[in-house]
Write a structure and sequence with these properties.
With 89 residues, the protein is mainly alpha-helical. The chain contains two helices and no strands. It is 63% helix and 0% strand.
Amino acid sequence: MTNGSSSDAIPAPGFVVPGARTALEMALVGLLIGLVGLPAKNALYLGVVALAALVAMTVVLFWSLNRQIRKWIRRAQGKPTMADGSDVR
C-alpha cells in the first residue's frame, strides 16, 4: 500500500452512467436496425437483419468499453480525464 499516490488526486471514472449509456445506445442501434429491416418476408433476409443488429450492438459495446478503458489508463498515468473537460486529443 502506498501513501498518497498521484492517482488518488484524480477521481475514478464511474461505471453506472457509462453502463446505462452503453445499454441505451445498444438498444437504440438494435431497434433502429430492427425497425428498418424486420418487415422482411424472407427468412434469409430476417437472419441477415438479426445478424446486422447483433454485430452493430457488439461494435457499440466494444467502442464503449474502449472509451472506459482509456479513462482508466489516463487516470493511472495521472493525466486528466474527459470528465473534467481537459481531454486533448
